[in-house]
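JOB MANIFEST
job_type = single_chain_structure
chain_count = 1
residues = 646
[input]
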Amino acid sequence: MLYPQRFNQFTREHADTVAAISCGLLLFLGWFALHLGWLGLAFLLLPAAYVIGGYESAREGLTTLFKEKELDVDLLMIVAAIGAASLGLWRREYHLIIDGAILILIFAISGALEGYAMQRTERSIRSLMSLTPDTARVLLQGREEEIPISQLKVGDEIVVKPGELIPTDGIISSGYSTLNQAAITGESLPVEKTVGAEVFAGTLNGYGALQIKVHKPAQSSLIQRVIRLVEQAQTEAPPSQEFIDRFEKGYAKVIVVAGILLATLPPFLWGWDWETTIYRALTFLVVASPCALMAAIMPTLLSGIANGARQGILFKNGAQLEKIGKVRAIAFDKTGTLTTGQLQVSQVIPLSKYTQADVLKAAASVESYSEHPIGKAIVQAAGDLDLVGAIQVQAIPGKGIVGIAQEQQIIVGNTVFVQQYVTNLPEELQEMAQSLEQEGKTVVWVAQEGRGAGEQGSRGTEVMGVIAIADEVRSQASATITRLKKLGIEQIVMLTGDNEETAQTVAKAVGIDQVYAQLLPEDKLDVIRRLQQKYQTVAMVGDGINDAPALAQASIGIAMGISGSDVALETADIVLMADKLEKIAVAIHLGRRSQSIVKQNIVVALGFIMLLLVGNFLGSINLPIGVIGHEGSTVLVTLSGLRLLK
């Protein structure tokens, strides 16, 4: 029973190949029977070769004819083959029946080869879909239970053991490990993750066991969004392919009309005999068919999409791969795009009697009770210090925070707030604070109740120092801008809602000359429109909700996959899975290469058609040679498109 099952599975998976092999075998036996003069056996074998080899093409061609009222290239091939067989029977020149069978055989072989070529691209894309397990191990009342991923709910605690795939996006609640995120983000090196870090479905856990809290529905995970978008990309034809499809429908009608004229006029115009006339008309139907032209675009673009997905670049459809190669100007959002979007302590400046650790420890003791991003940055910077718990902590929004630690009042906040407790701020620190603010940094003053009343302020409170907070520039931002300029991008600008000084500081650090600051979302939209008027194809790179209008307006919207908001991800055309800016240059190179290969393929396809048409008119080629040239060019163009898989 096992062998029949395997045979049936093989025939289903390789139906085109089985049909081509059967057609070839029957053709050979039919030719051999004709050679021996066994006409009855030959007329039994050769029609079987026609039916088996041409069934699929005839079915597709007739379906297109009756349902869509359009002529199809497949139908033209069948007409040419049957015409050759009919001519052979009429003139009793049975080698023409062999020619028609050879046409169908080569067409069947070409179809099988094209199928395998496209399967390679589809396998690369489908590999994304096998990245998540079907079940997850959930903690229920202290014991583990496996349930389908579809049944996971927000708040569930799941357990992932060493070497297992992460089943859904979540936050680590317990454990420490390294995760291989290459399949999702394109990062080649494993990433260390511990409590509080976000993990993504489809990434591979390393040596440590993890407990993960589900923080979003499983269907909203990053990998599921990727799968949906890639599936969508496969079904949407880019403008160039839509043009080729429209061209093919009109072109097929022209071929039929031209074929009829070639089958009737030459005997009257040039004195050809009817056999030669009809034979060349049939050959014309074959060599003039635009199969290679039809295969010039989609295999290339699908290969490019698969290549990008492997590198952490998600193209939502082939049109975006086409457009990214034509980009002449790029606009970058600042926060979360050129910068990490996460505030960090960049500098701690204490007064002479204190150390940096003293200042950080005092500030963190009260900020540990705050949810403000600045407070979180200070607590993170003081992570290795032994913090003292504070009491009577009170936060004043927009100003600062106060509390009592070790029986001393601690004040942390901006200049105006701290001056309520310390009347005269040290001049040297004021100068340093002004300098830091001009660099675009936020300055936080730290003061505490003095050891002796009236040491420095009327309330016995003294300044300990200042802490500078900054949004860190992404490490790869400067190199990315340099690379984009080398690629010939004519204009690179930065758009931000931040103040001018901060914007200029970041722009100078990364190498951007043109800055638009203090922008509202609609202002960003206007800048993109102005850039499009001058440069036509403009890309916008952003991550936030406020970037969504500009991302939608831009010719190409590029979103940061990890830090990006859901609105930005849905609006953008391209998603950078690992938030790696350097992938923008890779995407542009991939787009340009795809355009180059498409143009090469079109030239090859049209060149073959013209060469074969001239050869047919001059009588230099017969039907089998025409088929080999036609189908050979189609396979060549398809394989050429698959170069982008590398």
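[summary]
Residues 265 and 394 are 98 Å apart (CA to CA).
The radius of gyration is 35 Å.
exit_status = 0
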